[in-house]
Amino acid sequence: MIIMTRMHYTRDNMAGLLRGHDINPTHQRIEIAHALFSRQEHLSADQVMAIVNTRHSETSKATVYNTLKLFLEKGLVREVIVDPSKVFYDPNTSPHHHLYEVDSGKLSDIDATQVQISGLPPLPAGMVTEGIDLIVRVRRTD
Amino acid sequence: MIIMTRMHYTRDNMAGLLRGHDINPTHQRIEIAHALFSRQEHLSADQVMAIVNTRHSETSKATVYNTLKLFLEKGLVREVIVDPSKVFYDPNTSPHHHLYEVDSGKLSDIDATQVQISGLPPLPAGMVTEGIDLIVRVRRTD
DNA sequence: CATCAATCTGGACTTTGTCTAATTTCCGGA
DNA sequence: TCCGGAAATTAGACAAAGTCCAGATTGATG
Question: What mean pLDDT comes out for the span A95-124?
Answer without folding.
Answer: 92
